[in-house]
Amino acid sequence: MKVKSKVRRMAIVLKMAFVIFLQVYWYKLRKKPESDWELLWIKIGKRFRNTLFELEGLLIKIGQLLSIRADLLPHGFINQIQDLTDHVPPSEWGEIKEILEREWGTSIEEHFLSIEEKAVASASIGEVYKAVLKSGEEVAIKVQRPDIQSIIKTDFRTLRVIIWFADHLVPLPKGFINFKVLFKELKEVIERELDFSQEKNVLLSFKERFKENESVIIPGVYDELSTSSVLVMDWLDGIKVTDKVRLNELGINRGDLVEGIMKVFLPQWLEPGVFHADPHSGNMLVSREGKIILLDFGMVGEISNSDAIYFQKLIEGLLSKNYVKAVDSLVHLGFLLPEADPRIMEKLLAEMMTIQPNQLKNMDLVAMKLEMNDMIQALPIQVPTRFVFLGRSFVTIEGVLRGLATDEELMALFKPIFMNWLKQKGNNKWSFISYWLQSQPVFKFFYSIAEFLKLPKTLEELKETEQRREFQFTLYENSKQRLFYLSASSAIGILVGIYTEHDFIMQLCIGVTALSSFGYLVFSYKLRKWMKFMHEKRR
Length: 539
Prior knowledge:
By secondary structure, the chain is α+β, with helices and mostly antiparallel strands. Among the domains are: 6-89 and 148-193, no CATH class; 238-340 and 380-439, no CATH class; 464-538. 60% of the residues lie in helices and 8% in strands. The strands form three sheets. Strands 1, 2, 3, 4 and 6 form a five-stranded antiparallel beta sheet that branches. Helix 6 packs antiparallel against helix 7 (179-194), helix 10 crosses helix 16 (407-425) and helix 12 packs across helix 13 (342-352). The radius of gyration is 29 Å and the shape is elongated. It starts with 5 loop residues before the first helix and ends in an 8-residue tail after the last helix.
């Protein structure tokens, strides 16, 4: 790592965090317009990105995880950290060799005929090297980056300081960004990915799950060479699923490829079990025979039996407008934090479901009912990480499929695959959803789910807008009141000046009276203009 001093590393991160906090405070005090805020978040994102590349380690992984939290963070910031995965420089070979020999307890030559000293892939936690076993098989060796354990401990301590400061001192809407919950989720995800033995178990579970699916290839694992810090797998050659030129050269039918991808990922999204959370084109290849190759199972999510049941109930509740059932499902799924009021959520869902998801982007926020603000204040909600990963998995695959076929072709392929899945599972409980789905454009349905996952961000924006409006109204009202008292006091001062024949007092009070009266008229006009935004009960 470039920065090995723990103290210096913590100092760099804390300095970055406090500079960001100060910038946000300054913009809030100066009441900067939205366009300036967007530029600020872009600037903050660039600073954050540069610091991550300087320090590497846990911070890169945090950046990757935050890049999928568009429900919590500004788009200008998110856009600056979206491509962190592909630009992590590899470590020195000498350090990697030392780790491998320490983990195996023997020299590399004991197991391998050859090993390429240049990494074929390099990420924040691990790197991949190509090698040939003494038995002749080509393998991929995934090894943890040097000093990663020590660096992660340091970074977690630093992050706890930042989380405490943000949670107690930063003026953010309480309940909408629960920093403690976010920190806990980040810690769990990173600790799981740091243990390669867990990734090995996930890989083996995928291999077992798709053992009868001849269109999917999952690499095998060499258990005797795999540890918590090293994972040795089959080396699989393939082309990127987005490489249309090579697909055409090999004569691979795109319709068959799309159908194969759908059959691989649909069960992952709808059935209990582990799903691949990062199926980008580098982790999903196509063999010369047209088979799908899945790689890198470090970032995964899990749908429990309970999640599957309550997710189904949530969809049924929303479609049938049974909001009591929908809110109960949200509670069990973890969307509502403990302090949330379910009854208020039911009212809010009833309000929100009268609006089409794509209308939220074009909605006139000033015209929103003032009661919405009261609802929002009573709704501490946050999307659990496992569902953010589910959304990431779906959106990534949707992007891949849209590059291979048109919407009409995708819909024609998806419906029979989905209905066949229902038939195979004998899952009659999904029948209500399936009937509704058959009458809808398939990706419009999933788009509405993606928009629903962004609901906390939308609510936060609505709440902030209402808070600004309330603050502005209070400012005008208080200013008008103070100017009235000043005018009345100055008028009395004029009378005192006339009575005492003190020209200076009289002239000064006349000037103050004129200015304060003018200010009173200006703020009265602004207040009347602003009153049209207030609810009738507040006028």
